[in-house]
Amino acid sequence: MRADLARREPFWLARWKETGLYTRMLAREGRPRFVFHDGPPYANGHMHYGHILNNALKDFVTRSQTALGKTVKFVPGWDCHGLPIELNVERAMQREGLEPTPSLVRSRCREEALRWVDVQRTERARLGVLGTWDQPYLTMDPSYEAAVIQALRAFVSHGLVYRGRKPVQWCWHCRTALAEAEVEYADDHVSPSVYVKFPLDDASAKAVRQASGSTASRLVALIWTTTPWTLPANLAVAYHPGRAYTVLEAGADEGWLVARALVDAVCAATGIANARTSIDLSGAVLSGLMARHPFEDRAAPLLPADYVEMDTGTGLVHTAPGHGRDDYKTGQANGLEAYAPIDDDGRYDGTLGAGAVAMGLGGMDVWDANPVVERALSDRGLLANAPGRTVTHKYPICWRCKHPLITRATVQWFIALDEGMKDGRTLRAAALAEIDRLADDGDRATANGQAAGWVPAWGRGRIRGMIEARPDWCISRQRAWGVPIPAVHCSTCGKSVITEALLDHVAGVFAVRGADAWYGDDPTVLPETIVCPACGERPSKDFTRDDGIIDVWFESGSSFLAVAGRDPELGLPVDLYLEGSDQHRGWFHASLLVGCAVRGQAPFRTVVTHGFVCDEHGRAYSKSDVRRRQEARRDAIVDAVKSSGGWPQALRAVESAWTAPDKLAEVQKLLRTKSVDDVAMTVAQADLPYIPPEDVIRELGAEMFRAWAASVDFESDVPYSRKHLDQAVEAYRKLRNTFRFLLGALRGDPAPEPTDVALEALDRWALARLGQLQSACRSHYDRYAFRAVSAALLDYAQEISSLYLDASKDWLYNDPGASPRRTSARAAFQHIARSLAVIAAPILPFTAEDVWDHLPGFAGKSDSVHLAPWPAEVPLEDVAGLTLAMQRLRGVRDKVNAALEPLVGAWGVEKQAAKKAGREPGSGDKVFAEDVRIDHARDASVTLTLPAAEITELGTLGQKLEEILGVGALSVVAGDSAVIVRRAPSVACDRCWRRRRDVGSLGLCARCDEAVRVHPSGQVGT
Ligand SMILES: [Zn+2]
Ligand SMILES: [Zn+2]
Ligand SMILES: [Zn+2]
What is the distance between the alpha carbons of residues 34 and 517, in angstroms, rounded to a whole number? Predict the structure, then answer.
């Protein structure tokens, strides 16, 4: 066994490929099936650390379930459609001066996706991940695209698909609506903070005066907003019907209608001191009040809304139904349209009101509009706080381009969450019921020491909260690279049509020709006639095709149907989905909804999630995240250089590692040829490096990443750094050393089976412990507790190394070949080595195969460890007695060591080793020593006094203790604990160096004499 994994792993990968290992693993008959479905990673960019963790865990599952006797066909997949690839292609085409027609964009995107599929396929397979790599599933495959249409058909058949104008999250940088899962949040977004007066009309002002007793001549409803750009779209002011409101006397004969609970906050924000308020006004008083829009010639009615909160603002909420989900609901309930005068580029369009146009907002983008609106309000005396105030808050940003999003009503296709399906349940209710059913399965499994449902269990609450709160599913996107929305629009009346008959036809076409067929004007893509709900049945040429595509999350959410649902070797429901915990709102979420529509149930039995890989400070550790931090540091250095004027000060200010004199000299040298920005970036990159995983694999081998992934608590976020990797490597080395020792001792003749020989007590103990390890690891693997497997393997390796392997060394190497205890040890060693290899193989497939290669042959040995069955336990008796005897033996060993320690010259080394292992010997025993000149423990003759009961227990070992402990002689007598050390009187054997009474004239002890006679070449002592 050699250590250069990085160089040797490709050799095993090639061999497994050549010998068709995985095909042979799958071909074994009579095994139950474990359906494990790959969540498709996005085919863009190189593998990062998150992928490493994800792929390693997935392969642990495939290999361990296989080792436990199942057939696991893992079909890796890729998510190929979508915005990131399309944006890259669009940019490239722009550079090349090409016109981005849908068909050209699509063919370029396909090439781009395939290129990355190839890159990632190589990278994933390099980790040793088993799978049908030559037959993956791609979401851009024709059969997959057809399955997406069939999934959509299920929603149509339930009557859940509709077209409507509703607010969605919109990125005007990417010019598209975004799915919930594509929205990220920035914690430090700065928005304007404006308090705006909506004057009450005369009748409403009179009513408020009467109810409140206020005498202010001017009464306004005061609202607070952080998006002044949405004020042109204001259609109402919402209040909470169950809360108390009041008139706040704001001076200058003006009264502000605000919530009682927020009076202090409003005063603080607007600088009002000694505020007086009226008596409380109930919601009933506010009902029916009318305010005037601050700059448009229209009313803004006060409308009740339960969602109005009393922790920020004024308790009155500016309502623009085209720019907010809650606003939209209020608008729906009160017959207001979803008015949003903003185009795809985030600019005001031709539907903007006259007042806003007069302010100069026409054609302006929304961020530019904010200060203009604020200034205009201030000029008109309608701003209640000082202009220019801001608030820093959490704000949605685009997952792709990181630009802040706007909420904007657009015409889109939606799936209704709250309409009845065929069975009467709503999609939301069905999905929630499935979440709970899985959680119940999980509870039952946990009680039985297994894992099912949501693992870890908090996943249930997370996905439940998301399903409970989510709006209707916006499934259309205004892009080209995806599966087209298979809807048509009537050229005569403009009505949109999406029917089962239409989808059946389109799915049939896509299955053969792919979704590209939709683009262009081939009439056969549509059925000959289509029924328009207004015009009746008409030829399909009277309809135009929808130019949107389906949300990519809908696509990936249909993967169970496209992959497991179609392959007779898989099937539904899938046993396991395993992805990062962000997929509660991504893939798990979409799959659950599609599953409920298509099959009335979740497509999975168990959902395991893992955390994100972060750096040792808990920050996201991906190339782009590190790049952002490097840029921030570069900017900080540049700023500090400018303000302090000196590099030493600047580098100290950012706590750079470059403040040492030699580094500062290097900076000066760099500055001769490079700009300040570039040098600052060089420093930032050195301070905050990102080492791509490929580099680590080239250095240490993929096995070390696997060892790391198996050593972490993957349910939480997982820290990664070179230090963390080194710890895993250290643990790995201990295990590998145990393997090396076992293999070294087994070199030569085949070893007998443990069931065929009379096993010595020590060997029976080691095999008993192995049996416990086997059953523990079987259950750990079944619960996906890979960390427990690696810990158990390491514990066992350390446990047998500390006494058992050491002790056995003597008779393994020195006894005559046929000695019963040597035979027994070889049988045990073989069984231990092959069992450990099989148990470790799912985690460490390369190392385990290496061990297997080096193991001497035995009956039924397969040509790969990955074809070996789970090890059988050796039937043993009196395991409890052996365990107790070993405990006593360790106690005796510690006592003897403690006594010898101060006397033995050579002891120093072993003492250090003992200290390292954390077992500091030392007991209160009295030590009597004579003739202290001892070179080695084997020169000592020890008399040990022990309680009689312990002596009996030790007797279970049935072997001379001095041989196990490696001392020259040992006698045990009953009595109070004491240790007496003398120099062993007898002569040392030239071969085994043990002091024995039977050393003859040739300088050999009797057994060595026999051993040499049997094997004249002799086995040389260690
Ligand atoms: Zn974007
Ligand atoms: Zn029509
Ligand atoms: Zn000897």
Answer: 36
Separation in Å, CA 959 to CA 101, 695, 754, 897:
85, 52, 19, 19
What is the whole-number distance in angstroms between the Cα of residue 540 and the centre of ligand 2? 11
User: What's the 1009 CA to ligand 3 centre distance in angstroms?
Assistant: 7
Tens of pLDDT, residue by residue over 823-863, are 999 999 999 999 999 999 999 999 999 999 999 999 999 99
Q: Which of 131-135, 281-285, 448-452, 951-955 has the highest mean pLDDT?
A: 131-135
Q: How distant, in Å, are the alpha carbons of 147, 777, 832, 850 from that of 838? A: 39, 11, 10, 12
Joined tokens for residue 532: 């328009």
901 vs 895: CA distance, rounded Å: 10
- Copy the structure tokens of residue 247: 């008139």
**Does this model's pTM top 0.90?**
no
- Closest-lying ligand to the alpha carbon of 537? 2
Please name the residue that has the structure tokens 């500390």. Answer: 802
Assigned token pair, 5: 């994994």
Measured distance CA(226)–CA(904) in Å, rounded: 79
Q: How far is CA 614 from the centre of its chain?
A: 10
Q: Please report which residue ranges of 363-413 form alpha helices under DSSP H.
A: 366-379
Residue 119 has pLDDT above 80, yes or no: yes
- Ligand located closest to 1000 CA: 3
- Separation of 484 CA from ligand 1 center, angstroms? 21
Q: Please give the span between the terminal C-alpha atoms of the chain, in angstroms, as a whole number.
A: 19
> Which token pair is 812?
């393994």
Question: In angstroms, what is the span from residue 756 Cα to ligand 2's centroid?
Answer: 85
Element containing residue 708 per DSSP (H, E): helix 702-709
pLDDT for the residue 621: 87
Q: What is the Cα–Cα distance from 711 to 709, expressed in whole angstroms?
A: 5
Coil vs helix vs strand at 573: coil
Q: Express each pLDDT in 957-981 by its tens digit.
A: 877 788 888 888 888 899 887 888 8
- Residue 998: nearest ligand to its CA? 3
Give, for 14, the enclosing helix (H) or strand (E).
helix 5-18
Which amino acid is present at 956? T
Which ligand neighbours the alpha carbon of 84 most closely?
1
Cα 796 from chain centroid (whole Å): 30
Sheet holding 574-580, edge to edge: 453-455, 604-610, 574-580
Give the C-alpha separation, 88 to 628, whole Å.
Answer: 20
Residue 498 Cα to ligand 2 midpoint, Å, equals 13
Q: Which ligand is nearest to the CA of 1012?
A: 3
